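Colleagues,

Please find the record for the two-part complex below.
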Amino acid sequence: MNIPFSKDTVDGVLKRLDIADPSKATIRQMARIAEELETESGQPFIHLEIGSPGLPAQAVGVAAQKKALDAGVANKYPNIMGIQPLKESASRFIKAFVGIDVAPESCISTVGSMMGTFASFMMCCRVNPKKDTVLFINPGFSVQPLQVKILRYKVCDFDVYNYRGAKLKEKMEEILKGGNIAAIVYSNPNNPSWVCLTDEELSYIGELATKYDAIVMEDLAYLGMDFRKDLSHPFEAPYQPTVARYTDNYMLMLSSSKIFSYAGERQAVVAISDKLFHRHYDTLAEEFGIGEFGNAFVYVILYALSSGVSHSGQYALSAMYDAACDGTLDFVTETSEYARRTKIMKEIFVRNGFHIVYDKDLDENVSDGFFFTIGRKGYTGDALVAELLRYGISAISLSTTGSRQEGIRACSSVMTDAQFPVLDERLALFNSNN
Amino acid sequence: MNIPFSKDTVDGVLKRLDIADPSKATIRQMARIAEELETESGQPFIHLEIGSPGLPAQAVGVAAQKKALDAGVANKYPNIMGIQPLKESASRFIKAFVGIDVAPESCISTVGSMMGTFASFMMCCRVNPKKDTVLFINPGFSVQPLQVKILRYKVCDFDVYNYRGAKLKEKMEEILKGGNIAAIVYSNPNNPSWVCLTDEELSYIGELATKYDAIVMEDLAYLGMDFRKDLSHPFEAPYQPTVARYTDNYMLMLSSSKIFSYAGERQAVVAISDKLFHRHYDTLAEEFGIGEFGNAFVYVILYALSSGVSHSGQYALSAMYDAACDGTLDFVTETSEYARRTKIMKEIFVRNGFHIVYDKDLDENVSDGFFFTIGRKGYTGDALVAELLRYGISAISLSTTGSRQEGIRACSSVMTDAQFPVLDERLALFNSNN
């Protein structure tokens, strides 16, 4: 069997799209390359680059949103703090699945976690003029460092691969000692590696954040999706691990995009620790006349960014939180569909001579989940992305995620069962050619 | 008849809310003061401070949004550029009611005009390192200079009251000569004064923007609401006046909040002139790897701010634009309800010894509309706000809008016909006491 796409065909598409190097392509550009090759050849691609929900939006959310529209919310500016029902259900949801207490007041509605992190960077880098740098525990979501860059704050980072357990503490303290770190950012489970920081590691991060007065921005976009444990029972341990158990300096980013497959309506909540919410900063009082962290976040930053979040969509999110807490919407079991697909895909990759790059949480195998990482001996991640394109498989290089490891990020979200044999066939061909 | 609220009562509420001076209160704080006084006394206030839609959301929008939710858009990230149907209907709407050509590509979806202006400030102040200052033709919407302040760019402004006609040209050129102006901002019709710049004045602004390479951000939140002319017929003159006829350096802010009473869903479009959209800036290419103004605006700034706009809401806005273009949704005639109320209210104020502050567009009386301005001999605007509180009337001082005139901003949007006699009675009492 021939390689499905000739070098000339791929090069022609890259040239037409003005993309010099596919390994430097953004997710969006990679999707475009794959689409062009599909159109040109009539052969469908295996899309591993896309991180969109592959499940329908939760029906309880859609119903609540339509009901709110019928009730006439579309002409009313939403409360910038978030509508009260959402604030209350968010607080309840956090108690039910994260196992911590955050008051409704401190649960703030944002236009997706994208706005959540953008606005949080603006706050964290503004409260203390000496702290102008954001520390990323990488790998991560590439748009977050872009946000920091746009805001012209500074970035520093390291790859967590070599710094697990006690080494993480050492590495972080070495950096935090500099006194310039305003915020510490990571996702847990991790996009792209699906590494899940352990409670021991989270305790180091929390304690150091307190010691050096940095704010932890914990991205919980994939809350509950460490499927090695059963995190599906509201108000029952085990809970989603969180740094919030170890420090008061935290902001949790709770996106609805993946847990409720509600990406389209741009709904999220930022949960600020009650203590941080009410903390007074002279710098904020001086600049904006509002000294409290939480109030400045809402009435200055979020007000100025969008003057609130889709009113009907907030009712959707509130209803989904409530259904999850009531046990009528089991989002953990529903999203475990991604893990089922990932398990099959990993097996296909490994059987054809590939390996999992981020394979362990200390001595335990990482969970199957939404994303996973794949490497191939003899290939850099960049070279692997380019070569897989010829086999009709699109992915992004780990080098675009702040990782120092060689490999690709793959996502199982849009894979169908019918595509598994196709993936297997293409990887077998790759294997026989390598 | 006694003054409805004693000085002690008002002072007590102000103290409780920690507001030293009601004339410095934000719109939101003023609403809060009024609510507290209502609760304490059981007497309803006349709310002139609120600028929310007083009409229901356009039904065609609500229906389209619900249909989109039924079709399953809630799980799909919206295109960051804006969904294609919205881009096309926005372009058509601009042709129909503004009478100019902007390609669908250059019509960009934003989370309300609030995000539209925030993102535009970030662009305008970034393309040329020498241009770091935003020029406001005041009075205006107070959150826009706040946005500039948050972004740490510079602000300069003047009050248009003394600079109409040829004087406007002179004044602007004096400022633009400095070479530091990145953007020129005003709303037309004007919030709060309902001044409408004439075509002559807009031509000065446009020509100077071209001459000194500044970008005009024209806020058309109240598009079509100069009710002295009939702007209600799609694709027929007269059209909404615009600077776009006089320069290629423009970004039009098209909010759906007031024209379609759709404030709750945070839907707007920024229409960039096609020439500016495609203009290449080395500064952008260097910083972000994307040199074209329009693409950097979308793929860097808007992507990083919220990763798009409520997917279902975009279908609502698209449907409303189309209905307006088809002549089945006459938003101009519907919003003229605000002008009807304003006409009655102005008459009541004037009959009781008050006057209109911004009264003329050159030699013509300003239109009745959504907002109007009121002064009283012997009172500063700040003092008038404080005194009217005691008569159960809440408004904001013109001093908070960048105006140098003495008076208040009043809005007719939430007034009911039943409240007119109450307003009359309270103002008569004020008049007899002054």
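The mean pLDDT of chain B is 96.

Comments are welcome before we finalize the supplementary table.
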